[in-house]
Amino acid sequence: MPFTYFIADLHLSADRPDITRCLMQFLQTDAINADALYVLGDLFEVWIGDDNVTPFNTEIANAFKAVSAHCPVYFIHGNRDFAIRDKWLNKAGMTLLNEQEVIDLYGTPTLLTHGDELCTKDVAYQKFRKKSRGWWWPRLMLALPLWYRQRVANNGRAQS
Description:
The chain is α/β, with parallel strands linked by helices. It contains six helices and six strands, in the order βαβαβαβββααα. It has one domain (4-116): Metallo-dependent phosphatases (Purple Acid Phosphatase, chain A, domain 2), CATH 3.60.21.10. The chain has helices spanning 17-29, 55-68, 86-92, 123-132, 136-143, 146-159; strands spanning 4-7, 36-39, 73-75, 94-96, 100-105, 108-113. Helix 2 links the parallel strand 2 and strand 3 (73-75). The protein is globular.
């Protein structure tokens, strides 16, 4: 029987090895047998740029790359990892999808989304979301030094 997996909001971070262990077990034992794997955002607690190469996010990329040898792996940005770009996605063997993507799920048209755009009553977040997904803000942020982006991310996490 065919099957597809959807995962979202894992919020992986090096300081939560329990979540990482669960993901690794899932990828090694279950996901490799699927028809497809969809990661619907917030894979990481925070993503400050593909140039932030760490042993932790390299391990995660390698695990997904291993799965992608057996089934396609797709990714939709979330509100914590919208700065993931092609460099890391290629390293992880993932294909980036649109923020809203309709797929044919075994004959049923199915809308996939992270869902943060549906939080319409959170006006402050929607303003930030519009800015952060625009063309100029991501370019500006990713052009800043890595240490500064880390500080901005830490401040943002403390406030959220």
